[in-house]
Design brief:
The chain is mainly alpha-helical. It is 54% helix and 10% strand. Helix 1 packs parallel to helix 3, helix 2 crosses helix 3 and helix 6 runs antiparallel to helix 7. The two termini are 24 Å apart.
Amino acid sequence: MIEVPQAAIDLAKRFEGFCRVPKSDPDRAYPYVCPAGFWTIGYGHLCDAKHLPITIEEGEAYLAADMADALKATLGYCPVLAIEPEGRLAAIVDFTFNLGAGRLQASTLRRRVNQRDWPGAGQELRRWVYGGGRVLPGLVLRREAEVSLLF
């Protein structure tokens, strides 16, 4: 059985961070609206606005479950990644975690990956840098980190 690549987990943690809001309660994370307009908690876990605050341990558990879902969807839509170098799998799992399986399913990125067109896949990743209708610098950096894992 294929496990979630550590590089994918590292990317998610690096770019999501464990958002601690408010600063008066630094050991727990509270729901917040991400730049794309979704209620989120912990390491980018989608939630309800009324979600109770969580600890780092609860955030880690959410992240593990979310990454397992992203891995399953990624391998379902891009089965070639099961036999590619782990970095390629990590890049696309992070993309799927960040943007959702539906975005991967309907994307040209999916076609490029399944054709093993890695330069084309890199170009496609670089297109996914918008949140809330504008280019987000954090997404630009995240996509570049993903692209670096393709080669």
